[in-house]
Design a protein that fits this description.
Blueprint: E1 3-4, E2 10-14, H1 17-20, H2 28-34, H3 50-63, E3 68-72, H4 75-78, H5 87-102, E4 106-112, H6 118-122, H7 131-146, E5 152-157, H8 159-168, H9 179-206, E6 213-225, H10 231-254, E7 276-286, E8 298-299, H11 309-319, E9 326-331, H12 341-353, E10 359-365, E11 384-387, E12 392-395, H13 397-408, E13 410-411, H14 413-419, E14 425-426, H15 439-447
Parallel strand pairs: 2-3, 2-10, 3-4, 4-5, 5-6, 6-7, 7-9, 9-10
Antiparallel strand pairs: 1-13, 8-14, 11-12
Helix pairs in contact: 7-9, 8-9, 9-10
């Protein structure tokens, strides 16, 4: 397992505004909570109170040796009414970014990460014919206010997850179940990304900056038929892959319509990413248009398969479309007891570092435990634990491991022995393995390597 990071490969952490900040009740996810859609009753207007405690979190990040941070903006805070921007909130974000930069921490800024202002939702969200112009107005204001500080941007986070959950499954805001609407919104988001990409470059270039880097964060998965000899599963696997992933890969990158993404009026073919931004977590066993898991495979606490090979397979899929640098903008796992996270991280990093791909950044999801959408605060992905009653931050064992990896620029045999000898759980039933993996588990894990 021991390996060294390439010279230009660096570790960071990621977060999203609504998941950590607290204090805002004018966004779509607070409304989703207020109308009873979060099973554990977690309130996103509390979260980790990062909006108040950002200085403490910045100092903690600095102390851990973290030098790359993917942070998000809360659109609803910045534009609480259509066309009315809150200058105090822009000042707050400016202060936060400058504090982090004074600590040597480089910012990758996300403009849209699943949440929208309530006024935008009431206008029909991204189904509104004017939604592209509304979104671009927001982007323009952000670059006017923060563009002198930040050179790296994510326009839209995981458009496929946002659309599939919000417009197809109806599990997220706005809670619709329409494949036709889902495809239409996905096309609109593609236009939003491409036009935002162009706008950000044009505005920063006019102000004398030539270091602009823009992409969107693509949630990617590996897909396999649930049953290898079932003809329906075999047919649905490439279809699921196209609808959820490959059409987005091509259209968002090049501006070319690729079904189910429709014709994009006014968009010319070109190259609309400066780097590939990959969010990777798991593999899907396909039987229909829903997630599934193979039997007898390692899983995390949410039942997602742990499949490290997929991070390279999916990154290679994007890299074949364009020779661009690669940022892993999210990778991590729900491990509430922090009992296998080190192994998960180390196996995924080893795959990346030995892939030969030009991977420049790895942003672990996430820095602290946070509000994990429908899972509320019951699902813990952080390197740093949060006691939600006191808001106290405590570095986990996996956080200690991350600190050591950053300092040592890799994983030595001693570091692996001290931190990574951990057992996974098997099956979606979450059967807990003993500290030393049983012979049955070892055979199962070997089978799926």
């Amino acid at each position: 397992m021991a390996f060294t990071f390439p010279d230009d490969f660096e570790l960071g952490v990621a977060s999203a505004a609504t998941q950590i900040e607290g204090g805002d009740t004018a966004n779509s996810w607070y409304d989703w909570y207020a109308t009873g859609h979060i099973p554990d009753g977690s309130d996103p207007s509390v979260a980790t109170r990062h909006y108040e405690l950002y200085e403490e979190d910045a100092r903690l990040m600095e102390s851990m040796g973290i030098r790359h941070y993917r942070m998000g903006l809360e659109w609803a805070r910045l534009e609480p009414e259509e066309g009315v921007f809150n200058e105090e909130v822009f000042t707050h974000y400016r202060d936060e970014i400058q504090l982090l930069q004074s600590m040597g921490i480089e910012i990758l800024l996300t403009l849209h990460h699943f949440t929208t202002p309530l006024w935008f939702e009431k206008l029909g969200s991204f189904e509104n014919p004017k939604s592209v112009e509304i979104f671009l107005s927001f982007v323009k204001k952000v670059i006017e206010e923060l563009g002198d500080l930040v050179s790296q941007y994510i326009t839209i986070n995981e458009p496929n997850v946002y659309v599939s959950h919000g417009w197809f499954l109806g599990a997220w805001p706005p809670g619709k179940k329409s494949m036709k609407a889902a495809f239409r919104v996905m096309t609109t988001l593609c236009v939003c990304h491409i036009r935002a990409y162009t706008l950000i470059h044009d505005m920063r270039r006019c102000n004398g900056y030539d270091d602009t880097m823009v992409s969107y964060a693509h949630h990617m998965r590996s897909f396999v038929p649930l049953k290898r000899y079932n003809p329906i599963h075999l047919i649905m696997t490439p279809l699921f892959h196209r609808i959820f992933q490959s059409s987005i890969s091509r259209s968002f990158l090049t501006g070319a319509s690729s079904w189910p993404i429709g014709r994009m009026k006014g968009i010319r073919k070109g190259l609309y990413c400066d780097f590939h931004a990959v969010n990777y977590y798991s593999r899907t066993a396909v039987s229909g248009l829903s997630d599934g898991t193979l039997p007898h495979v390692p899983v995390n606490d949410l039942g997602w398969e742990i499949y490290p090979e997929g991070i390279v397979k999916n990154t290679q899929e994007l890299f074949r479309l364009a020779n661009l640098p690669i940022y892993i903008t999210e990778n991590g796992t729900c491990d509430n007891e922090d009992s296998f996270r080190n192994r998960y991280i180390s196996e995924h990093l080893k795959m990346l570092c030995e892939s030969g791909l030009p991977v420049k950044r790895y942003y672990h999801w996430c820095f602290t435990d946070n509000f994990e959408w429908l899972e509320g605060v019951s699902a813990r992905f952080g390197l740093v634990a949060v006691d939600y009653a006191t808001q106290k931050r405590i570095i986990k064992k996996s956080g200690e491991f991350y600190i050591r990896m950053i300092a040592e620029k890799g994983i030595s045999e001693n570091l692996e022995k001290e931190y990574c000898k951990q057992a996974y759980r098997l099956d979606t039933a979450h059967v807990t393995a003993a500290p030393d993996a049983t012979e049955k588990q070892k055979k199962q894990e070997k089978k799926h390597e």
